[in-house]
Specification:
mainly beta, 123 residues, 11 strands, 7-stranded mixed β-sheet, 4-stranded antiparallel β-sheet
Length: 123
C-alpha cells in the first residue's frame, strides 16, 4: 500500500505562512488523488484540499479558498500544502491522505493516512 509522512508543522503568528509536505511511497503515486484533512482540538476531522494526479484538478474547503494551495512534485513523490494568511482557527493537526481514484471529502473513504503534523497559529 501507500505510506505517507507529513512534515513542516510549527507555531506561526496570525497572518503568517507555512508550507506542509507529505512524502509518499508507492509506484502509482502520480495517478493517486492526494489531499489534506485537519483536526482541531476536541473537533472532528474536516476536509481541507484535494489534488488529482491524473487531471491536476483541485478542490478546497470554503474556509481555506484563496489562502491555501495544494500541489505535488511527482519526481519527489511529495504533496504540498502552502498556507497563507493563517488564522487562529487554522490551528489543527494536519493529515495527508491518498486514494486511488475519485474525489471525496468524506474522511472515512480514504484508505491511506499520514501520522499528522501540528500547526498552531497564535493570536
Amino acid at each position: 500500500q501507500v505510506s505517507l509522512v507529513e512534515s513542516g508543522g510549527r507555531l506561526v503568528q496570525t497572518g503568517g505562512s507555512l508550507k506542509l509536505s507529505c512524502a509518499a511511497s508507492g509506484r502509482t503515486f502520480s495517478v493517486y488523488v492526494m489531499g489534506w484533512f485537519r483536526q482541531a482540538p476536541g473537533k472532528e476531522r474536516e476536509f481541507v484540499a484535494l489534488h488529482s494526479g491524473e487531471t491536476g484538478r483541485t478542490y478546497y474547503a470554503d474556509s481555506v479558498k484563496g489562502r491555501f494551495t495544494i500541489s505535488r512534485d511527482n519526481a519527489k513523490t511529495t504533496t504540498y500544502l502552502q498556507m497563507n494568511s493563517l488564522k487562529p482557527e487554522d490551528t489543527a493537526v494536519y493529515y495527508c491522505v491518498a486514494r486511488r481514484l475519485g474525489f471525496t471529502t468524506n474522511p472515512s473513504e480514504y484508505r491511506h493516512w499520514g501520522q499528522g503534523t501540528q500547526v498552531t497559529v497564535s493570536s
